[in-house]
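Why do we bother with holo predictions? Because pocket geometry can differ from the apo form. Keep that in mind while you read this record for zinc ion.
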Amino acid sequence: MKEGWEAIIGMEIHAQLATATKIFCGCAVETGGEPNSNTCPVCLGLPGALPVLNRRVVELGARAALSLGLVVQETSVFSRKNYFYPDLPKGYQISQYDKPFSANGHLTIMTSERDEQGRAVDWQPMTIHVQRMHLEEDAGKNVHEGLPEVDKYSYVDLNRAGTPLGEIVTSPDFRTSWQAYDYVNHVRRVLQWVGASDADMEKGNLRCEANVSVRKIGETAFRNKAELKNLNSVRFMQKAIEYEIERQIDAHEKGEPVNQETRLWDEKNNQTRVMRSKEDAHDYRYFPEPDLQPLVVTAEFIEQVKREMPELPDAMRDRFMEVYALTYADASQLVADRELADYFETTARRTTNPKLSANWILGELTRELNNSGKAIGESLVSAEDLAELIRTVASGAINNNQGKEVLIEMFATGKPAAHVIREKGFEQVSDQAAIEKIVDEVIASNAGQAEAYRNGKETLFGFFVGQVMKASQGKANPKIVNELLKTKL
Ligand SMILES: [Zn+2]
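The structure, written out:
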């Protein structure tokens, strides 16, 4: 960022709550169905139809709120947000306004600036003020492609109308695009972790908007901001914010106007462009929804939700460091994904060697996963199978490099470790008598070197180890070879 300037960024995230049915009716929430097949009088907005709040929305909303450090309010109120648009058949959206479902959250995330290769340079904790998460219904969709005579007609698909959303709004706390990037990733991960949302940006069940303005360092007032939309991935969002910061600073310095407006990210040209200009505040003429009672959430309900929630990633990371003596970096990587974290715990319990288990999972196994583009849940190597392999390597029955080769084969075929070891002929000879025979032969046929070793040329020890390993075709247990050579020489 140009010297003397700072960016002010606030984030809004719409997360689709992972319910089976819509927020105010029993219609299924699913994508890819026949247009307008999942609809009923309520979500079509037919006169006289009455909304009934889906209890599951409140449960998942509470999970989401608690995982983001928000306080669930005892009483919240649904309001009508009035605007006219073809994909909104009622002429208003049922949302929440002055009494949201949850408020006043303090969320600690880890964030870092990135170097030119995009690598994190210095992870630091940062506390974000999450102002609120309220509950609302999604609108339908206008369809402008893939249907007959789209140049003449607009189509409306109301399957999405009434899908439950949590809208998560932060204070303008972010100063860089990477902070916003790390925040959105944090939110995605915890929402998935607690099962509140699939939080998949590509599928559109997590959508984010960034409000970006800039000001001279030392200024206290805010300048005009741009609202960035159409951000289909976290990476595009980061690039759009970065572009917008430079664009605004440049305009201010040239004395050109920076308008309060909504801008879209144009990924082809790597720039933002105007979607619509915006007055200071839209008049949505909010008023309480007369067809719904205020939502009252009891302390017992919250306690119940808390009991059903899994341990959160940050708590799990701290526990991994304390109980398993892992480093901060290893523990953080393991809790990046709940399945990976569970996989680690199962492996660590079975090997009783957490550090070695973490090394294998974050090293060899992760490399195989990355190379094949698989998630941990798709791995053919179960935690139990990996634990067996790690135990075999730790016992010295096969060496580390053989272990790595065995894992690659296990990963490709799903065969258990013992099976692959046998197939590859890696079973080590740990039979004392058999190895002793080879050791004796090697010493006898290298009498000169043996003499030199005894006279103090200790570097020759490695030579003898090598000769014995070679004679055993690499199968002799190196520990036993070392011990025997020391005694015999
Ligand atoms: Zn419906």
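Residues 234-254 form the longest helix (21 residues).
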